[in-house]
């Protein structure tokens, strides 16, 4: 006896899975565009959690403040408060790197400092930032495309020092 295959249901009528995919697509259209090869949002790449205490210091990308306000209200722009969980530090020159020691004391032991610098600049590079971080006792753990024009390097207190 020959086997007969059932016709698949028309697309979009397959039950809860189709509804969930539609909700996910709708949510993605409201999200800020992903940068680089990753499809994750910038805040997800940075690791920003709801309610997190964040400081933004000298980052030239002004849209980041709007994005952060959608996820947390605890945002400092001039100076980080004690027990800040994440600092976004704009690095336009080597002078900004001298602040790493002071900023390290402002973050929680499990916190992070994201050094954000312009791509393609000769006077500031990932290697320079990494060397300055290591000199201050920090470890680099992640690099991201912060925006089309900026890169980011995540710096943390090593586990052995926490």
Determine the structural class based on helices, strands and strand pairing.
alpha/beta
* Distinct helical segment count: 6
Number of domains as seen in the coordinates: 1
The rounded Rg comes to 21 Å
Distance between the termini: 70 Å
Helix percentage: 25-40%
Return residue spans where pLDDT drops below 50 for at least 5 consecutive residues: none
Please give the CATH architecture: 3-Layer(aba) Sandwich
Mind telling me the CATH class?
A: Alpha Beta
Could you describe the 3D structure shown?
The protein is α/β, with parallel strands linked by helices. It has a single domain, classed as Rossmann fold (3-Layer(aba) Sandwich). The chain is built from six helices and six strands. It has helices at 16-30, 42-46, 63-69, 94-97, 100-106, 126-135; strands spanning 54-57, 75-76, 84-90, 107-118, 139-145, 150-156. Strands 2-1-3-4-6-5 form a six-stranded mixed beta sheet, sandwiched between helices. A hairpin with a 4-residue loop joins strand 5 (139-145) and strand 6. 27% of the residues are buried. The model has no long low-confidence stretch (mean pLDDT 86).
